[in-house]
Structures are given as structure tokens and as C-alpha cells.
């Protein structure tokens, strides 16, 4: 059973998947930073400076007027954090679009590379005598 497990781990697909997960985690951090630090400020600017993250409704508990979502949660109040959900949806859409553009670009690069390979002239080396020709020549030489 241990040998089967070693064989399974050593297969290329498992290793490829592990590398993909690691790269995906690193890429997620980059995309999160891009969305949070570069894109969301522009979204907030175009929406009149509204930060959706702190939009919530208190369902139960006492919260000071104008307190942030984090402060309301620290106070132990039950909150309906619809603003955080809206920001999560916006972040998802932006991340999905970035990933779509990346996949689209990679696909175009692969297609261009495949097209170049298909268009590359095939250099045919001069065909020498076939095996049959050589054997016939040997036979004819032996007859003489």
C-alpha cells in the first residue's frame, strides 16, 4: 500500500496539481492586492467615495452611531453585513475578469506558437535507398 501511495504521488498529474495550487495561492495574493489597492479606490471614487465594506444593519445588540463594521462585531452585535457581501461580489467579478484576460492571453500565445510550428517548412532530408533497395543490391552483387 505504501508503494502504491509513492507511485501515486510520483505521477506527473499530482505534481502538476501541487505546483498549480502553490502558484494559484501566490497569484491570489497578487490579484487581491491589485483589487484592494489599485482597483477598489477607483471604484470608490466613481461611486462618490462610498466604502461598501462598512454598510451594515444591526439585527441585535447595541452599537454606537456611525461605528465601523469591525467595531460593531467587536461589540458583540449581530449585524447583517450587506456591504461586505457587495464588496466580495465586486472583488470576485474583478478577479474573474483578470483571470479570464490572463487565460485568453495564454490561449492566444499558445495558438500563435502552434501556428508557427505548423507553418514552419519541413526540411526533408534526401531519401537514401530503402532497406529493400540495399538488399536487392547485395543480392545482385552476390550473383556476380
Automatic annotation (TrEMBL):
Query: Where is it localised?
Result: Cell inner membrane; Cell membrane
Domain of life of the source: Bacteria
Per its UniProt record, what Pfam families does this chain match? MscL (PF01741)
The subunit field of the Swiss-Prot or TrEMBL record says: Homopentamer.
The UniProt entry, under InterPro entries, shows: Mechanosensitive_channel_CS (IPR019823), MS_channel (IPR001185), MSC/AndL (IPR037673), MscL_channel (IPR036019)
Q: Which GO terms of the molecular function aspect are on file?
A: mechanosensitive monoatomic ion channel activity
Q: Which GO terms describe its cellular component?
A: plasma membrane
Span-the-membrane segments of this chain are 12-31, 38-59, 79-103
Give the protein family: Belongs to the MscL family.
Family matches, as PROSITE patterns: MSCL
What is the official name of this protein in its record? Large-conductance mechanosensitive channel
Keyword annotations for this protein? Cell inner membrane, Cell membrane, Ion channel, Ion transport, Membrane, Transmembrane, Transmembrane helix, Transport
Keyword RNA-binding applies: no
Described purpose of this protein according to its UniProt entry? Channel that opens in response to stretch forces in the membrane lipid bilayer. May participate in the regulation of osmotic pressure changes within the cell.
Topological relation to the membrane, as annotated: Multi-pass membrane protein
